[in-house]
Prior knowledge:
Alpha-Beta Plaits, 427 residues, alpha/beta
Amino acid sequence: MINAAMESMLESIATREDDLVELTRDLIRFPTVNPPGEAYTPCAEFVGDRLAKTGFDIEYVRGEGEPGDTDRYPRTNVVARREGKRPGACVHFNSHIDVVEAGDGWTVDPFEGVGRDGRVYGRGACDMKGGLAASIIAVEAFIRANADFPGAIEISGTVDEESGGFGGGAHLARKGYFSKPRVDHVIIPEPLNKDRVCLGHRGVWWAEIETKGEQAHGSMPFLGDCAVRHMGALLAAFEEKLFPALDAKQTRMPVVPEGARRSTLNINSIHGGQTDDYTGLPSPNVPDSCRLTIDRRFLIEEEIGEVKGEVLAILEELKATRPEFDYAIRDLMEVMPLMTEKDAPVASAVAHGIQAVFDREPDYVISPGTYDQKHIARLGHLYDCVAYGPGILDLAHRPDECVGIADMVQSAQVMALALGELLSAPR
Length: 427
């Protein structure tokens, strides 16, 4: 039930549409491309300066020692906190400020923040600077309408989510920024549609597999042992045995899109023989090494040991049956599947906000890929976390990426209502 004060707050957000659009455009104009991690510091400082005007205490936390952090490309995160008038829970809105490279195929400048036809275009518009802007507008409107709110409100702009989040969300989580008693509830404004609550994500295992051989002259390959051919045998075994087995696995998790409601394996890269940075003719060598990077996404019904065991079984079978086959395998990253319960406080609060704004029940979904909820759970041990924000995930990372202006306004209204419910509930 929306009371008069809530109605006034929602109307205030609607009247600030122009401010929301300009804020989104300003954020897009920071080319925070990862890798290498450009413009992190000025973008973080822009967010900090904005929130300081609303009475937030601002802290900049560099991800020192994390992958990619250098003096040229510092991993600068911003954390803003506004204390309420009396004790209570803390609600944290966490957005990443990094974006992937623009790539080709754009009809507009990817870092201009073009607004037209009811949308804002630009790299990161959807994923997820539109969500960050919506959360800022939501919080500002809430504070204006509820100056005596209890508890605390936090907003963070973190880095490196597109490359695993280790210099951003993971770094902050290790330092206690996503743990009780500091924080109780987290909303991540990822683009999962304005009327859906994202409860979590599938699991992921990244690994590098190297097949080994013996170098020889290319005119006499019989004197050596080609590591690339060994890798070809592994790929053939994947096609024959592993991919059909993964296709048969289904889940109770409401993963979107439909095709992701099963286990998947992607071949991220393959390198063997002549190095990629050489532009002349290759030397006539039999390659003694070939490396493959795999991206295995798995379901809540699967154990990580089973996931790895399927690949290891194929490798061991090849070692036993294929002459001279040898390999090495190295884990790069593993993250367990996550699924917050629908009746958890933050999921319920967001759902109630969606019901109020759209007059319908929300859909509950699971993301096919991971996002920084993984670090909040595994390092911060905080599980009252969902993803909710404007934008359509299918548009992320594509040319002419965009976010709907009306979607941002309505998402900001949902966030403001959810914030009010969470802060007013007993801790």
